[in-house]
Structure formats: C-alpha cells, structure tokens
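Sanity check

After download, print the first record. It should look like this:
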Amino acid sequence: MTDHYRDTTPLPTGRIALVALFVTALVTAQLTASKLLGFSIPFELPFTGAILAMPGAALAYALTFFASDCYAELYGRRAAQVMVNVGFALNFVVLGLVWSTLRAPALDPTFAETFAAALAPSTNIVLGSLLAYVVSQNWDVVVFHWIRDYTAGQYLWLRNIASTASSQALDTVIFILVAFVAAPTLLGIGEALPTAAVISLILGQYLLKLLIAVVDTPFVYLVVRTLRPNGIDPQSGYVSKD
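Expected structure tokens:
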C-alpha cells in the first residue's frame, strides 16, 4: 500500500551536513569541557602572561557558531533558532547517556574509574555550559539577522564576525563565571577560582574564539556560495554582492 502522507522530498545534502556539523561540535564540546588547555604565545598579556588558558570545549564550541551562522544565512532565522534550541534539548540526551554509562556495572573497576574521571562532567561545568549555550547561541542568531536586515543582505563578513564576536563574549563570560565562581560559591561544589585566574580564563578563551571567528569568515563565504550559487536568497530576495 502506498503511503500518501509520506514526504518524499529529499533534504539538501548541504543542509544535513551543516546540522550534522553543529551537533558533532556541540557533543564534542560537552565531552571535552572539563579539560583545561594552555597555549603558549610569543608575548605576554595582562592577567594571562605568555599562556592562554581555556576549557577544552573552546575549540569545538567555536565551530558551532560557524555552522549556525552558515545555517542562519542559508535557511533563515526561524530555522536556525529551531536548530539551536533542539541542540539545547539534545544536550540533556548526551548527559543522560554519559551518566547512565558511568553508573552501569563495569567489568574492570580500575578502568571504570579512569573512564569516569575523563568523561564525568561536574555539576558546575554542566550548569555553566548549558546556560552559556542557550543565551549565546540565540543571541548569535538574532544579531546575525538584525545586521543582515539592516544591510539588506550585504556584508556577510560583517554579520558573521560581529554576531560571533558578541555571542562568544557572552558565552565565555557566562560559562566561566557560572562554572568557576557562582556554582562553587552558591552550591558549595569545589572552590571558586581567584579573580586573576577567572580573568585569565575569560581572556584566553575569548581571544581564541575571536581569532577563529575572523579566520572562518572565508569558509562561511565558501559554504554559502557553494550552497547558494546564484547569490539570491529565496526567502528575502536579497542579492549578495560582497
């Protein structure tokens, strides 16, 4: 029997790829957030010195903004916000699967301890990352489209950098303050970091994210022009000239 209610319209490969990239980077960020990274730089900065310290999630999380900006440009604000908020809900699925695996009986208790130490996200990290995510990702989509409408679809580089730079600032400050200051102080889990260490983490993480936002701009153009070769946005009618 033929199913007359089934939608047989194939989804564009590029659209699926962007959603897959967003989800992959998001899951990776959730699993790597508890590791602190340290990158040496050839000069010293106030508070950070010659080392840029940041949570391990910074690298993967920056990639989510690349994917969401490409998606917002190609498929509109509503579609991008749906992707972002569904991603927020899926964070809880990832956490549930990880925690259930950690709680399940292990054949090798010694390895189970190592496994838990590597993957078990602390309550502070979870609270900080979830709050930072839902605020910064929605801000990114709103600012991106505000600039897009204000400039009549021109200057893709401007809305990519401006929306990502402002949203990454929000994300970094919220995550660091909640995970390393507010949660330890209010919940009594762990110890709050001293002010100098907090500023160092904020600066280190934000500088890396800002650099990535600038560097990924040509790739945003590449993705958009590949998936929209005629340069015309079918939703708004904007013709890209930049």
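If your output differs, re-run the checksum step. Summary of this record's structure: Residues 62 and 209 are 6 Å apart (CA to CA).
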